[in-house]
Amino acid sequence: GMFQSSRIQQFRIGCILALSRPYSMSSFKFAAIQTKVSADKQSNLNNAKNLIQQAVSNGAQIVSLCECFNSPYSTESFPSYCEPEDGPSVQMLSQEAKKHNIYLIGGSIPEKDGDKIYNTSFAFDPSGKIVAKHRKVHLFDINIPGKIIFQESKILSPGNQITSFKTKWGNIGLGICYDLRFSDYSTILAREKDCKLLCFPGAFNTVTGPLHWELLLRARAVDNQLFVAAVSPARNEEGYLAWGHSTIVDPWYVF
Predict the structure, then answer these.
(1) pLDDT confidence bin for 21, thresholds 50/70/90
(2) Which residues have C-beta within 8 Å of that of residue 149, sequence separation ≥ 6?
(3) Can you say whether residue 187 is alpha, beta or left, with left for phi > 0 and alpha for psi between -120 and 50 degrees?
(4) Is 111 among the catalytic positions?
(5) Which one of 177, 195, 196, 214 is the catalytic residue?
(6) Model pLDDT for residues 193-228, shown as the tens digit of each residue
(7) Is 177 one of the catalytic residues?
């Protein structure tokens, strides 16, 4: 199903006349890679590399991995899986972007910086250079009695930047998961940063996912008249249960 399997969602994003915003964006193919994350970091990196190769073989020019693609999504895992900006995960992403001549959004990883840990997304241009680094601004703290308790802020520190980067097809805005819920974040990316596509690596869960995942993506796309992509991990059988259902929506809400 759409939630359990490792899969690649691809969509050709092209020119469209928007409802309220002049919209010019030459055509390119975007791939959203939904990976099943295990406790073995090297296996996660290898799996990501294989799926990037598959996406490129299918013509993808911009590729995004999912939130926490190299680590289990748990506050217990972040301290042992975190790594600095020059660690093996970022090095692998840089090499793959350069190897395949693509823009690559590296989902997110637990990033170690001094005594702090961030949930961070690195984006790379086709030369392998880091062109954006987004640290998740809105940390995911939730307590739904009898259903789910999760508190990122126990371990993670928040970022404080609204993040975008340029491509030859237009500007892309970058956020992580819970950032999607805060509409002003997307509006600033659309109106002040002139973004044509917003990408949110995200791991909604099986409680909030069926209620709000598609709803929020549609709202951000239609309100701001741009494309929105959300890239989830596949669902594991234990631990944190990601919703899956990686999705791409256009400004008229056409999947």
Answers:
(1) very low
(2) 142, 143
(3) alpha
(4) no
(5) 177
(6) 999 999 999 999 898 899 999 999 999 999 999 999
(7) yes
Kindly name the residue from 67, 96, 111, 152 that is annotated as catalytic. Answer: 67
In the sheet that holds 227-231, the strands lie side by side as 163-167, 170-174, 195-201, 227-231, 247-249
Single out the catalytic residue among 41, 112, 136, 196.
Answer: 136
Helices marked H in the chain — which ranges? 41-57, 78-81, 88-100, 183-191, 214-224
136 is known as an active-site residue: yes
With beta carbons less than 8 A apart as the criterion, state whether 64 and 77 touch.
no
For 76, how many CA atoms within 13 A lie in the half-sphere containing its CB?
3
pTM: 0.89
What's the pLDDT score for residue 178? Answer: 93
